[in-house]
Design a protein that fits this description.
It comes from Raphidocelis subcapitata. It contains no helices and 25 strands. It is mainly beta.
């Protein structure tokens, strides 16, 4: 992806111009996998819940309730076995809630229930359970087993929202983002993947566990034990219960049209034949190019140079005024380049702009609020710089807006970006009502 799409939110005046319908859930959330995956009697089972405000207004504080065994739905206000606080969240702000619960003392199969906003103080219909991946409510359940023998369980951790390809909401198979080196592989050229591996078991994970990576899998490919065509790496060291590590997988080669990377841990099924178990398989699309080029994107390489550092000043700029934007630009390509043309879009925060907005193509941006040119500094391949746009325009309507920026280099080089697409990631700023100008 040859574009930097930095998302930031700015509250531009006293009242919101576009409110979500009153029945719309302002929260989006998902969790990490349970650790341990199959606990022993009386163990503590831990997981992280990432909660994000996807509405244009600040939310109230709330509570997360967790039950170790509750097959039936909970009602608003019902007290959980354990409860955790969710602070007020500005638009697009997220929080990581570290949750845990003591599991039953007897071996068996149970239903853990997680209820975000269990008091229904944030959303009146939080007690609803989603169907599939819709966002109807904030209560979910999952069965798990309590066992009487220690075991090792290998998996691939879910990533927090800022590490997700689109920032959320959660979609299975799209929340783990292995780092690539180079970040923008070239067709037919070797590259590496750095795969996160976790032990969600109660016994050590021994060295030698296989990690299989298919770098050019066909769409819809489902791996199986011992499936052909993969590059195989092995866990280099023992991994204790609850621990994570990163395994380097070299020798991957992509091809034009098949930029689907599929990862299977315990590839020869030495620990378990259940390939469909959560965390065994991860699949995602990545960008690749035919030739060396620059590539301005928000990027999580091995050094985790995420472009989450975006700031607007003043915090609540005046309607029809100007604002200063400071943003971290990363060149993920193989060619040193200045950012060049930076297109700016200003759109109300809503379901279609949660992860930014762009229109047109690299050679002809459309419906922009402004296009500025940054001919300096040159950003070396793989490096990042914080740059400033001093006088970006502010919309002429009050409300919460998403500011999206795309850097695409010189217009003369726009053809080099053909075939590459934006991958939106964002940095959220706290929303606050701007004071009305004097005299109003």
């Amino acid at each position: 992806m040859a574009v930097l799409l930095l998302l930031l939110l700015a509250v531009l005046a006293a009242a919101p111009a576009q409110a979500f319908p009153p029945f719309a859930n302002p929260l989006s959330w998902y969790s990490s996998y349970f650790d341990p995956y199959r606990p022993m009697p009386g163990d503590k089972m831990s997981f992280i819940i990432w909660v994000q405000n996807i509405s244009p207004e600040r939310t109230e504080a709330g509570t997360v309730a967790v039950w170790a065994n509750k097959p039936e739905d909970a009602k608003c206000g019902e007290k959980g076995d354990k409860e955790f606080k969710v602070p007020p969240l500005d638009p697009l702000q997220s929080v990581a809630v570290k949750a845990f619960v003591k599991v039953p003392d007897a071996v068996g199969t149970y239903t853990v229930r997680t209820f975000v906003d269990s008091g229904c103080t944030i959303f009146a219909n939080s007690s609803l359970e989603p169907t599939g991946f819709d966002n109807a409510g904030n209560q979910r359940d999952r069965t798990y087993s309590v066992v009487d023998a220690k075991e090792a369980v290998v998996g691939q951790p879910r990533s927090p929202p800022l590490d997700m390809p689109r920032g959320g909401p959660y979609v299975e198979g799209s929340v783990r983002t292995p780092d690539l080196e180079p970040a923008l592989p070239l067709f037919g050229q070797p590259f590496k993947a750095f795969v996160k591996v976790a032990n969600w078991g109660t016994a050590p994970l021994e060295p030698g566990v296989q990690i299989a990576v298919w770098p050019a899998a066909a769409a819809g490919f489902v791996p199986s034990c011992g499936a052909a065509g993969a590059v195989i790496a092995t866990l280099p060291k023992k991994l204790g219960p609850g621990k994570e590590t990163v395994v380097e997988v070299p020798g991957l080669v992509t091809s034009e049209g098949d930029n689907n990377l599929v990862v299977l841990v315990d590839a020869n099924c030495s620990l378990s034949s259940d390939v469909g178990r959560s965390g065994r398989v991860a699949a995602f699309q990545y960008e690749a190019a035919a030739d060396d080029t620059f590539d301005f994107i928000p990027l999580p390489p091995a050094a985790y140079l995420f472009t989450g550092k975006v700031k607007i000043s003043p915090k609540s700029p005046p309607v029809n005024g100007t604002m200063k934007i400071k943003a971290k630009f990363t060149n993920a390509g193989t060619v040193d380049q200045a950012p060049g043309r930076v297109a700016i879009w200003l759109r109300p925060l809503g379901p279609d702009t949660l992860y930014g907005y762009s229109d047109g193509d690299w050679c002809d941006f459309k419906n922009t609020a402004a296009i500025v040119t940054l001919d300096a500094p040159v950003i070396k391949a793989g490096k990042s710089k914080m740059l400033t746009i001093d006088a970006a325009p502010v919309p002429d309507e009050e409300g919460t807006f998403v500011v999206s920026l795309v850097a695409a280099g010189p217009v003369a080089d726009c053809g080099k970006l053909a075939g590459l697409t934006p991958q939106p990631v964002y940095a959220a700023a706290a929303a606050a009502a701007a004071a009305k100008p004097a005299g109003r």
